[in-house]
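name: query_chain
kind: protein
chains: 1
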Amino acid sequence: MYLKELRIWNFRKYGVREENAPGLTVYFSPTFNLLIGENDSGKTAIIDSIKFTLGTTSDDNLWLTEEDFHVNKDGVSATELKIECILSGLTSQEAGIFLEWLTFDENGNYELQVRLTAKKREAEAGLPERIEKSIKAGSEISAMRLEGLAKEILRSTYLKPLRNAESELQPGVRSRLAQILRSHPAFYKKKSFE
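structure:
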């Protein structure tokens, strides 16, 4: 399974195009992908949109904030945002795990659409201003909350940008290598039910 396509509406730098088309659509290769660009060109927004939607294996606290909502050229902040991750190339075993959320592409192959939506809610009835976030999977008209094993399988390993190689590549439990290996199936602890 791989991330085939990412669509972003009103998230950070990326607003909405005409007829409510996503402000950004990124197509990914099943083998290798590389994001290159100048500072402040939107690379981090692309990576963070995937992290917010699919989750990570690290202990990061991922909270949407007011700053995550797109501000248009007139200085008006969006009140809603949406991020879609479309995964393709599912094996039969993966399709079985995600069965209730599956859709099909134009060639009849399995696809998994995972969608994060968030709305700003104003203070009301004693509740403070807040951001309501929902992550669902499946076609947009019949999407259901993604839970359990299915949600765990989608979590990705995120390695923060390498700023100081000498100190950040030191061995240890929280090292970059440990983060990668911790998410590999060969290192899962098997639960005993005896």
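note: The chain is about 20% helix and 25% strand.
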